[in-house]
Amino acid sequence: MNNVIEISDLLFEWKNKKQFSLKIKELKIQNKKKIIIFGRSGSGKSTLLNLISGILSPTSGILSVKNIEINQLSQKKKDQFRANNIGVIFQQFNILDYLSPLQNILLPCFFTQFKKHDKEYFYNRTFDLAEKLNIKKNILYQNNSKNLSVGQKQRIAILRAIINKPYLILADEATSALDENNKNDFINLLMNLCNEEKVTLLMASHDTSLKKNFDMSINLEKILL
Amino acid sequence: MKILINIALQSLLSRKITVSLTIISLTISIVLFLSIDTLRLGAKKSFFGNVKSGDLILGARSGEIQLLLYSLFQIGSPTNNISWESYQQISKMPEIDWIIPISLGDSHKQFRVMGTTQNYFERFSYRKDQKLQFKSGTYFKNTFDVVIGSDVAKILNYKLEDNIIIAHGIASQSLHDEFPFKIKGILKKTGTSTDKLVLVSLEALEAIHKDWKTGSKLPSKIKSKKKEIEDLDLTPKELTAAVIKLKSPITIFKIQREINDYQEESLQAIIPGIVLTKLWQIVSITENIMLSISSMVIVSSIIGMIAILYSNLNIRRKEMALLRIVGASPKNIFTLIMFEAFLISFFSIIFAIVLVQIASFIFFPILDRQFGIFLEQKLWNARNLYFLNLVLISSLLVSIFPSIQAFRKSINDGI
């Protein structure tokens, strides 16, 4: 399977906001590639990511991930598919302060994978990956995540996105809130981990300087109809 | 499910201040309701506890509530007495199992003196057929022996063999000081009006009133000596009332009618349970108002809880979006909000139970001492459990609305 994502004749319109629509004739994202999508604010980057993740359903057209048209799946199967195959990194990292860093990382497993696999496997995987990202065990076991530094939050967010061994990681403006140093650290960590885990990365950003770190860049405004 | 409980708990803990205020508000309203209800039922129980003994109360014709009040609660004064002859005749009716004569009129300090017979101690029962029991001593054997209720002993600090003087009438300065009584028995606490009684024999009341006529001591007479009096015929001439127990409750209306139609004297018989219910209906307006107010307080607290859940939904939008992305279904989000509402209500109920229990240990003895409202420490009856379940269920029912809102939003909220 060469393409993780295949889009053709995609149309998405909000029910209440007719002035916005997302129309894409064709888009194919190859497996294990790292792609960055550029576009102005409001151009539809986040909407596209939401469509790919199955949170939103296209009005018409075909959108398949791993050869599966996720909008054809039931709500339950869609949620399971997303949890098992897609990892997401948010703009503000969305770390739940009241959970420990370990619980934050394992959150996707709680909803799906623990049912199928040995819990110990995921705990060990977390510790191994955390070690690679230089997060000490005592940090993982903190009561809550309130006092994590920005750098620690970035790494926890990356680990959470990758813990379920997804095929695809979606990152939405993940560097927009970071300073230059943190941004570079974050991108390096993400790239290394995606290479090691052989994961496809699709990142939405308005920062064109990130282009050099990716295999391919797409200007969303150019592919929109 | 386990993860949802864990997330709900930790999420609530992370919003300590708002959640605590919600729990406090709901707890206070539950405590308020339970307290009012406990007080109401306790007062009712105390009140009705006095009427367990008899099927009928015999008295001179007057108002039925008045007869009930002075015969069973020793509240107010009788307008007329019944003659000893009529009493004797009625007591011989074959349908009557036993009869307790009551004679009122005198007092000791702030407590009423009641003349009666040994039957009172053997037959009088209260609440769940509990019999009078002696804390110490026994009932009167001699004419000038006296038995006192537990409150009398406690408040006046009396013990066995203490001498007491009875005053003529209520709040009178005229004392029967020539006839001191000796305390021979102290009753155990009953939570009824008996606790505030000074009980003497009918003969003793007759004896101390030998030198009295129409409420005054006869000045011309030389004071009778205690010993001399005891040798006289002390059969009472009049009684205030009598409590009648019938062999079969079927005959209750027949005997009542016979007494009401009694030709020799103007008498009446009342069924205490019925009269007390009538009396309680008058009093119950206040309790219903209080219950309604406390119910409204609970409703407003539940609405407050829902308002907080609603307002938090917007603040927690990112949290919900994250949960959706990592695999939580909209159903999970719905369940999460419901769990939170359940936990808030559950903890409010637990805290309310603890608070009411503590309050009962502190305030029940005070209520008993100050107002004569005897409340049992056993608060957790089926009625209260039903009420607490109702609070839990209603808070869950109204939480469905913010949960649906969260469910709907979570379908569209994403990255």
How is this structure best described in words?
The complex is a heterodimer of chains A (225) and B (415). With 225 residues, chain A is α/β, with parallel strands linked by helices. Chain A contains 8 helices and 9 strands. Chain B is α+β, with helices and mostly antiparallel strands. The model of chain B has no long low-confidence stretch (mean pLDDT 84). The chains are: A alpha/beta (225), B alpha+beta (415). At the A-B interface, helix 1, helix 2 and helix 3 of A face helix 1 and helix 11 of B.
List the defining traits of the structure above.
heterodimer; A: 225 residues; alpha/beta; five-stranded parallel sheet; four-stranded antiparallel sheet; 8 helices; 9 strands; 24% strand; globular; B: 415 residues; alpha+beta; ten-stranded mixed sheet; two-stranded antiparallel sheet; 54% helix; 16% strand; elongated
In short:
The complex is a heterodimer of chains A (225) and B (415). With 225 residues, chain A is α/β, with parallel strands linked by helices.
Q: Tell me the number of strands of chain B.
A: 16
Structural class of chain B: alpha+beta
Residue windows where pLDDT falls under 50 for at least 5 positions of chain B: none
Provide the gyration radius of chain B in Å: 31 Å
> Over all CA atoms, what is the radius of gyration of chain A?
17 Å
Portion in strands of chain B: 15-25%
Helix content of chain B: 40-55%
Mean pLDDT over all positions of chain B: 84
Distance between the termini of chain A: 27 Å
Q: Strand count, sense and closure of the main sheet of chain A?
A: 5 strands, parallel
Task: Enumerate the spans of chain A where pLDDT stays under 50 for 5 or more consecutive residues.
Answer: none
Class based on secondary structure composition and strand pairing of chain A: alpha/beta
Oligomer: heterodimer
Mean pLDDT of chain A: 86
Q: N-to-C SSE series of chain B?
A: HHEHEHEEHEEEEHEEEHEEHEEHEHHHH
> Given the structure, what is the number of helices of chain A?
8
Largest sheet of chain B: 10 strands, mixed
> How far is it from the N-terminal to the C-terminal residue of chain B, by CA?
24 Å
In sequence order, what are the helices and strands of chain A, one letter per element? Answer: EEEHEEHEHHHHEHEEH
